[in-house]
Request: fold
Amino acid sequence: MSDTSTFPRSVDVVVVGAGVTGLYAVHKLRGMGYSVRGFERGADVGGVWYWNRYPGARCDVESVDYSYSFDDDLQQEWDWSEKYATQPEIMRYLHHVADRFDIRRDYTFSTSVTSAELDEETLRWTVRTDGGEVLSARFCVFAVGCLSSTHLPEVAGIGDFAGATYHTGEWPHEGVDFTGLRVGVIGTGSSGIQSIPLIAEQAAQLTVLQRSPNYSIPAGNKPLDEEARREQKAGYAERRRLSRLSGGGSPHMAHPKKTFEASEEERRAAFERRWELGGVLYSKTFPDQTTDLAANGVARAFWEEKVRARIEDPAVADLLVPTDHPIGTKRIVTDSDYFETYNRENVRLVSLRGNPIERIDERGIVLADGEHVELDAIVFATGFDAMTGAVDRIEVRGRGGRLLTDAWSAGPRTYLGLGTDGFPNFFSLAGAGSPSVLANVILCAEQHVDWLADCLRHLDEHGYTAIEATEESVADWVAECRRKAEATLMMSADSWYLGANIPGKPRVFMPYVGGFGAYGQIIKEVADSGYKGFGLI
Ligand code: N01
Reply:
């Protein structure tokens, strides 16, 4: 924990989190002359990239796009080495950003904010940390990340296991050597699918325990040479322009025709091009792919044909092909040699469908059919209490002492993802109610921070103390988010977008699915109108 004795106890802004959003918020607001204090649970910057160090961890947005756009010198000077950056390279980049703009100096690391309480008289926030600090802030800005509260399932006997256990989202910084070990991986989302091929290369025996198969597409990752980088950098301005208009915050546009307007030949060519592009972008090949089930079925069939060709044993392929949700309604995983891994002699796939884990004991995992999978190590790739988990960890009390967790007990309630009624001068960035996890989160961070910066300037220029979303605008936005989600196929998958992975969590589609560019237009119009839907106090 750093020495905080010289830090101010009263500031304009407290920023919680030093991930990609928090870092830019501190940099931008400080540059405008606001006094800012940042707090971060981890020992350094990086957020989700600080914690998720499992083997194979890699971004599923191209490195050229998954980088800040706010400073062209930064864009031009940084050299990405691969199309999709690994976690260590992203961390090097974020360290570079933190050093270059001297962002760390306003942060206290290894320190969690435990509570934030509104003083209704002054409309200031009292913020407390687990380091014993108490400070007063005019604005409270949560940049706590959507995937930063890990989820460990409740399995009987979990504490009895004699071997080592790991969660992909809290991976040991010194790394793990699985050489010669019998390893079990529970979970086949992005984290499982990215780590399984690398664990398989080390382990003596790998058993993958799969509850739901997932759609995954090869990254088509490749090193970037000087020529490729030069081209990317020369095209940055246009790349960013297109990204800001796009649905997902990267410069790729869906095919101009709907699925069935295109000929069979055009369709195959379009799917092939997206397949080559790699990963998650496949879900937006045609504009109607996640709204029309028949169109989705065509995309799915192409995927299945490609994937079955990679798996030698048709019975294993049957287990690996999802049939329970349309393609793209859970995040498509971006993999490197995932399906081929099941062709290895030392890898076994166990389907938990109809044969769930009954308990864990000293020696391994016991399945419902009585099989005892003996293991030396268990990797939980079991995901996160997404979007609200990290917010829920902090006791936030607004007007009348109301807890934010109570206000959000039936699902997150925000206006534009930014503000909540009853919580003046409280902002949540790149989280629920905004495109966040459905788009390139670095550009989402910039979109939100830039909006916030303009908002604070507006308040000051017009002599206001505070801004607060109205109850009506929150209700309307919650309804709009629901309407948008219901117009897609996204409601039909048991995804973490819907909170379906956490027992008891309300089934509410949490991100805004209307598109990154369209959302940017909405929040801009709200700002241009003098912040309609907010009360200015
Ligand atoms: O988590 P997940 P994740 N018994 O929730 C299974 C981002 N990300 O960490 O589907 C057995 O997707 C669960 O099964 P089911 C990305 O946005 C990005 O992998 O619930 N199994 C599922 O298979 C991603 O979507 C990258 O039936 C249990 C798995 O655990 C998000 O983070 C890399 C279980 C959890 O999958 C989350 O990904 C990594 C139980 N009791 C993550 N409980 C990039 O590429 C859960 N499971 C940038």
